[in-house]
Design brief:
The protein is built from seven helices and no strands. By secondary structure, it is mainly alpha-helical. Helix 1 runs antiparallel to helix 2 and helix 1 packs antiparallel against helix 6.
């Protein structure tokens, strides 16, 4: 049985704070570099990008993190802990595959928005693409093997790559 934070007992998670923080940094780096690229070449596009990134890390967590088994604890990133500080757990709905697919589509859209601006400068493009690769690698190699949410589409990606 999972426990809410109010009961005083916490379930052990497969991640420790350091891996959750590391993965959070690796997944946040493309957002920072993407915002920088957009600011340099298409500043008005920041009016789309920054609210979308903030919504992903705050409002959208209601449909993902607030429904997840790791709510309120370190998960593959620090979003589970941050969500518990922003909103209550969603007891009525469980996290499912469809929601995870939308979550990954949201991440993909956030990755694509700055790409045209980043590609205008070779070093920035290299840094941006490397940060995307580092974040994806952290998820596929560090986060996914430890996660117990078997319905996640990233489990399929790992199997297709022969990692499971």
């Amino acid at each position: 049985m999972e426990c809410d934070m109010e009961c005083g007992v916490t379930e052990v998670t497969p991640w420790d704070r350091s891996s959750a923080v590391r993965n959070q940094v690796l997944m946040s780096a493309p957002v920072v570099l993407g915002a920088w690229a957009i600011a340099r070449h298409r500043p008005r596009r920041l009016l789309l990008y920054l609210p979308a990134a903030v919504a992903f890390m705050t409002l959208w967590r209601r449909w993902v993190c607030a429904r997840c088994r790791y709510y309120g604890r370190e998960c593959s990133t620090m979003l589970g802990v941050m969500t518990a500080r922003m909103m209550p757990r969603d007891e009525e709905h469980a996290l499912d595959r469809q929601t995870m697919m939308v979550d990954f589509a949201f991440i993909g859209a956030l990755a694509l928005i700055p790409l045209p601006s980043a590609l205008k400068r070779p070093r920035l493009a290299l840094a941006y693409l490397a940060s995307l690769a580092a974040g994806l690698t952290a998820v596929v190699l560090d986060a996914c093997p430890r996660c117990e949410n078997e319905f996640c589409p990233m489990k399929d990606v790992r199997r297709s790559l022969g990692l499971d």
